[in-house]
Amino acid sequence: LEAEKAAADARAAREEAEKNLREGIRPIVIPTQAQFRATKLRLQYRKDLFHFAIAGIAGSGKSSLINAFRGLRNKDRGAAPTGIVETTSVVARYPDPNPANPFVWYDVPGAGTLSIPDWQYFTDQGLYIFDCIVVLFDNRFTATDVAILRNCARFQIPTYIVRSKSKQHILNITQDMLDGDEDMADARVAAKEQYIRETRASVARNLKSAGLHDQQVYMVDKETLVQVANGKHPREFIDEWVLLRDLLGEARRRR
């Protein structure tokens, strides 16, 4: 009788899980203590360092952003490899070259290149061990980005939402605005304002629809960020200064 009851319970649990998946309700995956230890060992987690993960879909510019945070251009020695196709198949570790920054930056494979559902991406990549996670997107906010943020909230991991390639996006809007009589400088100012306004509204809308708290979105360009990371003062910027200040502040606060 007990065996029959156990089999019936298992069958009911399986049917409930299948029903939830059909209805879009994702299971909550909680790693065990053994998984925590194994993941920290695999990713060389050290108590004396602060560990940033850069996550997002393939092609969002994660490797370029890590290079910029470390004050490197993509062609510099020691830079994370970049390319048109996703170059990262496993989580890659990059210590900060500045001795004043006891940080390690991690390049997490883009979810679009992996044959796992978005809700499983967080656990499979070991994102639960990190001290802070930057969720990077280029054109649009995705279900994977939302899944990462939701899991970070569950594990109480601070997150920063960053939109990359801002100069190119602003240039595209500028070109759309230009007509025969339009002044290039005026169009660029208007395009930048439109880009900032639309990006903030889009992220706020996506967070609200996902039932997540509103939070700031940082718009950056890798070339500007490299200059800021190296202590230079670029003529044009959006959120590069603020992002770097907030990330460094987060690291120093939590250490």
UniProtKB/TrEMBL annotation:
SUPFAM superfamilies, sorted: P-loop containing nucleoside triphosphate hydrolases
Coiled-coil residues: none
Start and end residues of each IRG-type G domain: 48-245
Gene3D superfamilies found in the cross-reference section: P-loop containing nucleotide triphosphate hydrolases
Protein origin, superkingdom: Eukaryota
GO MF, any single term: GTP binding
One Gene Ontology cellular component: membrane
Record family assignment: Belongs to the TRAFAC class dynamin-like GTPase superfamily. IRG family.
Protein name (record): IRG-type G domain-containing protein
Organism of derivation: Fomitopsis schrenkii (Brown rot fungus)
